[in-house]
Design a protein that fits this description.
Layout lengths: L7 H4 L20 E3 L10 E3 L28 H25 L7 H23 L4 H10 L1 H6 L1 H20 L2 H7 L3 H12 L6 H26 L10 H35 L14 H31 L7 H19 L6 H23 L5 H18 L9
Antiparallel strand pairs: 1-2
Helix pairs in contact: 2-6, 2-7, 2-12, 2-13, 3-6, 3-11, 3-12, 6-10, 6-11, 7-13, 8-10, 9-10, 9-14, 13-14
């Protein structure tokens, strides 16, 4: 999915041991966020769900092995990372669209629960199997950091909402449209950062947001124009046309909801959770796998409560995973394992590379959606993609401001 988990490194500033591979298991996408920029730096930049950012001493971003700042070139390892991240984002969108295109009657809350359970299992297995530590260390960690666990309820709720909305969006709009529209999370995050954190946007970021908005409008112009030309005054207007219009608008609204919750969660994490300095936990004693366990448990409590309140009768009658088929379970596993892939290649990635990966995944999703699902795309759509790709690269680029007049 190109798309959107909450990055645990936004939630706390712990230092993992060098070279540690951290199991994530978050979706993808629905977005995580880079929250480590200092107050006078660029606004927050959400990235693919499950991406991690190692912060030393609470502020500094580790150097990436992807490229040398002097040369600006990308190493072969960096290119492999770019391909891996792009494929992960693209495959998530396409797989979820395949699962949801016929609108199967299953509980989206069950899918979210499945993802969180897998995240919890993967993270616990890592702690027990790789770090060779005991379950008691997890219990100790949760007890010592219980204040932060309560603060996690807000971003965890936003994350669960994003995952649920992804299913709604991809049941109603094509993966090609979704992959473009969801990039509005950049605009949402920048807007919340300006309003709440009083950040100032750089010129290059303003340009990127304008390009992004224009690109999204171009990519959606054909669908909205075609459907809008059919009005109730037209004798050719049918109930099917009306339902198609409603479905498309439902998908757009769900995607906008993803973008808004992504931006809000980013700013909340920056302003509230990272502002907490009085934790009892010794940060150096625990790896980020513990944060994954913490976030998964909080998310399970939230989405579990929601499922019991809203879907209890259905669950008691048919079971939690009623009407789930093979592709649906594969989609859950793909969403959970996506974060592991990102974590495995973290040391080669930086914000620029992640921007490249997002741009490539948008293009791949559009082309493959046309090939696999017969999505009809025209020249205006691809012009919109060019705008969106340029916007993503500008927003995540480095040292571009000094090159502008």
């Amino acid at each position: 999915m190109s798309s959107s988990a909450i990055d645990p490194l936004q939630l706390q500033k712990r230092v993992p041991s060098a070279g540690t591979l951290l199991p994530n298991g978050a979706l993808s996408p629905h977005p995580s966020f880079h929250m480590t920029a200092p107050e006078d730096s660029e606004p927050l930049a959400p990235t693919g769900i499950g991406a991690k950012r190692c912060v030393e001493n609470g502020d500094a971003e580790p150097k990436s092995e992807t490229a040398s700042p002097q040369s600006g070139s990308i190493s072969s390892a960096g290119l492999k990372v770019l391909a891996l991240l792009a494929v992960q984002n693209c495959s998530k969108n396409l797989l979820m669209r395949y699962v949801m295109k016929d609108r199967p009657n299953f509980l989206t809350s069950a899918a979210v629960i499945g993802v969180e359970v897998l995240k919890l299992v993967f993270s616990t297995m890592y702690i027990l199997g790789v770090e060779k530590r005991s379950v008691s260390t997890i219990i100790t960690y949760m007890r010592e950091d219980k204040k932060n666990s309560m603060l996690l309820a807000v971003p965890a709720t936003a994350y669960s909402l994003q995952m649920s909305l992804e299913y709604v969006a991809l049941a109603n709009i094509d993966a090609a449209i979704f992959s473009v529209l969801v990039q509005l999370k950049l605009l949402a995050t920048a807007t919340f950062a300006v309003l709440v954190l009083r950040r100032k946007l750089k010129k290059v970021q303003l340009i990127s947001l304008i390009l992004l908005t224009a690109g999204v409008m171009l990519c959606n112009s054909k669908q909205l124009t075609g459907l809008g030309n059919k009005t109730t005054d037209n004798e050719d207007y049918t109930d099917a046309d009306q339902e198609e219009l409603k479905s498309h608008m439902r998908g757009i609204m769900a995607t906008l909801g993803i973008a808004l919750s992504s931006g809000f969660a980013s700013v909340y994490t920056e302003k509230v959770i990272k502002g907490q300095r009085d934790r009892n936990v010794l940060r150096g004693d625990y790896s980020l796998a513990y944060t994954q366990v913490q976030l998964a448990l909080v998310s399970l409590v939230i989405i579990g409560t929601y499922a019991l309140i809203k879907d209890l009768d259905v669950i008691l009658e048919n079971g939690l995973f009623h009407n789930f088929n093979g592709p649906a379970f594969v989609s859950i596993f793909n969403s959970a394992i996506g974060g592991l892939i990102v974590a495995a290649v973290l040391k080669y990635a930086d914000s620029v590379l992640k921007g490249y990966a997002t741009a490539v995944s948008v293009i791949m999703t559009g082309v493959l959606s046309m090939v696999l699902f017969g999505t009809q795309l025209n020249a205006i759509y691809f012009l919109g993609i060019i705008n969106v790709v340029c916007a993503v690269l500008l927003y995540s680029g480095k040292n571009l401001e000094q090159d502008m007049c």
